[in-house]
Records
---
Amino acid sequence: MNWEVVIPQLIFLASIFIIGFWASRKIASKSNFLQEYFLGSRELGGLILAMTMIATYGSASSFVGGPGAAYSQGLGWVLLAMSQVATGYFVLMILGKKFAIKSRHYKAVTLVDYLKGRYNSKAVVLLSALSIIIFLFSAMTAQWVGGARLIESLTGLSYISALFIFAVSVIIYVIIGGFRAVAVTDTLQGIVMFFGTLIILAGTIIAGGGMGNIMSDLANENPNLVSPFGHDGSLTPLYVSSFWILVGVGVVGLPQVAVRAMSYKDSKGMHRALIIGTIVVAFMMFGMHLVGVMARPILPGIEVADSVMPMIAMEVLPAWLAGIVLAAPMAAIMSTVDSLLLLVSSTVVKDVYLNYVNPEAARKKVKTISFGVTAVLGISVFALALSPPDLLIWLNLFAFGGLESAFIWPVVLGLYWAKGNKYGAMASIILGVGTYSVIHNVWPEPFGMHTVTLPVFISFLGYVIASLLTDRSVTPANMQDGAVKG
């Protein structure tokens, strides 16, 4: 085992556990367990809000799968990745203050809580909870695999042993610390990701003999590698622009991102998060994907694309520095995994158990069930990750597309269109999830566009048409805050 690489990882993990124990003491001191455990008592400032959104969104896809795809596709994939720069800005600009005010009005702790308050419909709640549980299991599995592969490549342990270490680490600190531990560790992880990107970018440029030399080597191998269209010309302008729906504006519909827009302390914090988030995302997405491309002439012939990032770090940096830098992708993976784990746990406990099974459950029982559900979910994902896919980015993007197709319109139009109602929300979720699942499997990339484009459009039509057709059944007595009652 290469201890020079492993020791920085151990120090990083120890820091995460310390934060988890600190957050567990906060939970004990707060009177409202659910608000604290699942939303950090809505006390996030600008820096923590920005970094937790970045760290949650920046995942194994951004730091492991993305650079791997850039290694195969060339500079065209870097251009594709840059469409994510506006992600944080769009989320906070579109949801922003209005979403936070409505969430407080509905006393919402989760995204499903918000939908329950807005549409007052059991069907909407159950459809939403089911969508989150199914799709986030896919996303969590991809992240679990990414974390295990990174530990495997760093330590030389078997995949199963690496997966076990990763799973135990995440499950323990999420169980004991809840949302506050997740948000504060996200901040530490976001800072590690930023400086890790800076160091590996500089190291790769130096090792490749400068940017001019690296670009010349890439062009000599295949001129398409330095074009915007990918190594085989498959990244057409239509595909790239439609991909922006998946990784840009569509992110508004992701529950794990939307819930962070509920948790900030004041509008000053939100505005600060807008600026910090956009700058940091731009740098990290550009840097990590560019490193993936530049690794190609330095380490030609890598067969498993997901191993590009750890291999290039250990090739161009001293072992001890590679260990520090590789805490960045580990941070990206852990910060996404912990958020998804807590989100699915909150869906089961708050949205299903407390709404429909035992609404009068005592605090002690809710606490025990929250810890138990989080542990069972983590163990279940561990079991699913035992047979990993070859390229985890696609599994993760499948989950992203499904959730965006389900939630973007019930969330956004629910905020801004008073005529939107529960029938529109149900139609949008069913059509979004249904068409995305079918198109993804039988008609991928229809008309040369990304798979998510048509489902998002169809779910939009479903929301508007169903709301308008049922609008006559709505009376002034069952309207409140633009919501339809009953």
---
Amino acid sequence: MKQKTIVTGVIGSDTHIVGNRILTMALEKAGFKVVSLGALTPAPDFVKAAVETDADAILVSSLYGQGELDCRGFRDLCVEAGLENILLYVGGNLVVGKRSWDETHKTYADMEFDRAAPPGTRIETVLDWLRRDFEAREHGNRRAIA
């Protein structure tokens, strides 16, 4: 079986990097090949890296509350680059102001992210989502249920 490749990074003008580094280390320990783009990464750079590395998933991180703006049109960029089936996750403090997680989750689901993770999501949860979503794709489904 081909080793899965995952592109990670911190989108937009966000500069937090510690959590992204911890995520990268956990993904590598779990057996994934990780292409870490670091902080201050524009959306097109994620897509370009995914194309260049034949990635299976993109994990976008944002903690400064502007993720909603930075992630608009992200799936469209993927489709335009021929990555219509790539797994797309986003996580962090994704919106400004007080909004329920259900509203925030719907915002990112409407932008066609496969998964959205609120602040405090454990790495074990992300690893479980990846395992189940990759398995679901082997059976012709977009992602695992729930």
---
Amino acid sequence: MTLLRIVYRSLRQHAFTTFVAAGSIALAAGLALTVWSIKSQAEDAFTRVDAGFDAVLGARGSKLQLVLNAVFHLEASPGNIRAADYEQIARHPAVAHAIPIAVGDNYRGFRIVGTPIEKLAQVEFAPGRTLALAAGTFVEGDAHEAVVGSFAARRLGLSLGDVFHPYHGFVYDEQARHEETYTVRGILEPTNTPLDRVILIPLSGVQTMSGHAAAAATDVSAVLVKLRPGAAVAGFQLDVLYNRQGNRLTFAWPIASIMGELFSKFAWFQTVLALVAYGVVLAAVGTVLVSVYGSMAARRRDLAILRALGARRSTVFLLVLGESVFTGLLGAIGGLGLHFGLFTIAASIVRAETGVVLDAFAWHPALAVVPVALVLLCALAGLVPAAKAYRNDVASGLAPVS
């Protein structure tokens, strides 16, 4: 009988103990992998997703708030800016696209964004990709028509020809319903960006909506800015013009750098999560050590019989060590499965809340490092009971217990 077969039979004999130990390893591996993968992918996705724009021009305030409001549709607008401000930056020679947006309303929790939809559809939100319709047509000037993002349409059950009332504010409140109705004329194809979870209507549809201040009927919430290729110097010049020389507007540029600052503010939280993951891993390895070491007393006679049948001390040592390694291996495999399950759930929540897509099956070095490290730690934990088995005396092990 080979050593591997003996290890397999021993693990089956102590199936419950093996299951508990491997389960703790799987839990540790799953949590550690999920923490590292989500941290890495979320940071990469939020600093990479810019909907195809380089900057945001808005009212004086936080650059991060402007980006979260205009690009990710997560924050409130710091205030409106005049139409003249939009027209000024749109005429700048270094600006390829300037897309005004007006926000402040929702339909059952999904944000309504007023914007010139035809112009927005001309901007590449990713290299070589512009907005495309899965059904219907883009709005052609009627202020009471809408184009719905793919995720929002699916969640809201909207289809072509459906009519809806908008609600004031970013939080759905049945008492805040506007009287106007909007007809769905188009459904966007998925973009894997925050645009998937918004409802686009013409700019005038928001500006002239009942209940909005008539004096601000031409104002916009922000302007999404796409600079011409190689116009990084222009971005710096606009940054100086609006942020240092002016005191009324804010030019949030570059978007990736601003989002990077967001994650640097939460670095402490990521450290806490990592420490929790490390703690769970150590606790799981300790479980393997205790379970294998604890079984030694019950198996002392079995090991002595094995020695009496001719097995060498090194064979018994490798047998006990192999049990620890296989327990760690089972746990690592289970941890990978648990990771993919947890990540899929977390990714669905992130997409529902932000529109940003995380891929559970995307490669990350932790997917190899964590399982291997856990197996090695389990092997290290198995050295103690293996050494005890190595030193066991055959005669005392075969002696009657009472």
---
Amino acid sequence: MGGFFTNPLIVKELRERFRVKKSIWILALYLLILGAILLGFVYLEQMNSLSAPGENREAFIVMAVIQYGMICFIAPALSAGTVSGERERQTLNILLTTQLSPLKIVLSKLLTSLAFIFLLVVASIPLYSLMFLYGGISPSQLLTLVVFFAVNIILFGSLGLFCSTWVKRTGVSTILAYGLAFFFVVGTGLLVMFLGPLIAEMSDSVQPVDPMDYVGMQVLSSLNPVIIMSNILGEDFGPKLRLFMEPWQFFVIVCCLLSALLVAWSGYLLRPIRRSWFGWRKS
């Protein structure tokens, strides 16, 4: 594993990404904006003398929503051009002649493309410490939120990487990655919203039917990141989840499995000669 993290592709791309002034300015601007929002809320809380300790979590929720919006917007774009960009620059074939296997290449691309957004999230964690002054959140809640952000970054990055490997053009790959990410974030929520009344309407039972009694609806709701994040934040948004484990744990497991599948599939697509399930070869 140590050899993997020091392979020439990772070293080269990390140097290119972090040894530029633009990265420092983006990080500084990002922390400045988040800090300004946080200080604004602190000022408003001090102006509101009726607010009770432990009940002021608006700043925490706003910061979490902003960070998740940033993840949804940036993570797919960062990885959507990693492989297709190499193909457009006509350097992909040269990369495939190195000693790195296709799987190591896609893993290296995923790591280097998501390193900066991980840096943004980690750098913003100290800002959350101010939230503890006002109560209403716990360290375990903050840790769960960070894990939630991390698995979303990896999933969206894997999605963009898969699109970049599957589609030859970076523009098309980016649009496709955004479309799939939009379906994951918004589409699953709309399905929950529309399927619930439809199931209740189609039921033959005389008694009122709760759509959330069906396992499929529980699973579908637990796959929606907005519902899961509101559950982590302790907000009553979306249906009540009654799984055999904590909903965020189920979400994390599914996202990790999906990410592993997408990365493995990308590695397979990148192989110059692939053996299909039917035994014949194609290039």
